[in-house]
Amino acid sequence: EQAMTNLLASAPFSVATLDADRTALQAEVTAAGATTTYSKYYWITQTDINGCESEPVQVELLLVNCPFTAPTVQGEEKCQNVALNNITAAKPASMTESVDEWRWYDAETGGNLVYSTDNNFAHGVDNTIAGTTTFYVSYLATETVSTKQCESPRTAVSVIVNPVPDVAIIESKTVLCYDQGDELIDKTVDFHLNGAGTDTWTVNGAAAGITSGGIFNPTFAGQTTATYTLGYSYTDGKGCTSSTTKSIDVQFSPIPTAVGYTWITTDPQPVVISVTDLEAGASVKWYDPSGVLIPTAITNPYTTSDDPTVEVVNKCYKATQVVRGC
User: Are 316 and 292 in contact (CB under 8 A)?
Assistant: First the structure.
């Protein structure tokens, strides 16, 4: 193109004629099967104001196919919120010429030239937003036959920010009873398109008390009432990790201390039994000697229906305390 521009400057060709010549020239080169260089000759004369034409001078138009191949470049792929590195391009390993200028574009063809200082491109992609941003890099170098600059093909390079998994512990229970048995803790995971991965459960930051499948053992710390922090971490197929926590209480309700009834039948008094050493907020359930819950016995102390005038050698009621449903 530079040779054609020079020819236009020194010869009386109109732009329209030049465009038509280029189209014909392209067809001519193609028909000739030229792949590297192609020469075409023009003769130029000038005519003065009196109509006198000069002797012609021959001009060679040498067309050189740009020999440069696309550069190599390694993309960047990280998880959300992880620092992104610059991307760096390199000329082909077999290329001996020096690169005059690097060019970074936002489109495969045309588009905007977004950077042209060097081969190390600070792309500015936001690492907090998941997505793929593609740039295209080429270079200018001087072709040795024509000594003209030409631009290589563009190489696409992507900066990928992978989303982190969305994880949540959705266990509906906030209180687990010490003696209820194991509890499978409910959770949800969305690893997007990153592929399935692996997960980890913890209790207060340690592995004790919960299995790899999320089964929590309320008795693992012994007979105690406590609040524990359940931790769940998931790493997806791209190596992106998300973690979440949830607090859960374990309620241990100890056996209360019974206060029985001992009296004489000749001085009958109501048969009143009770329990002490209750937890704060506890309610009491009473059971008859056969172990059947007495639904009407909701007080402490509890007055039984026993006849205080009838001698009883040993009659055993039972009581439990209930704290937060346990």
Answer: no
